[in-house]
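Backbones bend. Our protein:
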Amino acid sequence: MITRLGLQRSSLADYPGALACVLFTVGCDFRCPWCHNPELVEPEPGDPGLLPVGEVLGFLDKRKRVLSGAVLSGGEPCLHPDLPRLADAVRKRGLKVKLDTNGSFPDALAEVRADYVAIDVKARAADYPKLAPLVPDAAERVARSLGWLRSSGTPFEVRVTAAPGFVDPDTAAIVAEFLEADDEVVLQQFRPLRTLESAWQTVEPHGDAALAEILAALKHRSPKARLRGG
């Protein structure tokens, strides 16, 4: 049950075309070593950065005339069976709902009824066991989630992070096998800031030439693919 949330009070970058806040749920079924929200994946007991849900909803009540949306992020929000209830509480305040997800809970997508979804494709299907050792069918779940999004008419984007060793120039074409021609695809640079595994804080991001090769491989499959910030 969702009892506490992290809160970013405003953002112009997380919900396309909207001034939104970001609500962060705790817990994740993946263990991506480059994850930049380690405190949500493995939270400390009594984390003072988390707020009671009621306090967060009270904030939305005060700011609903300024904000136009709220992003449900994490961690992995769909890990929580009561996420649809939180989404409904946001909608009742007149705000649009965006969902950030790793795609491992395809059945939850219809229940949340998000207005916009950002779904991650993290690696080749064969590499997903390294990222989600407790989710043996993770790649299949991501493919099912993408299929549902395409058939539902829900606006969505596919996010691909250029994490060295997982998304490289020589693997990008295989990573792109998750994609289809009409998908909106965003390639993101890996940032070695806070990471779940500390060793990744010294990993060198891909240079411009390698990023261009990765993007070209994605565009071959999905012509609308673009580099975030580019």
Summary: The chain has one domain: 4-227.
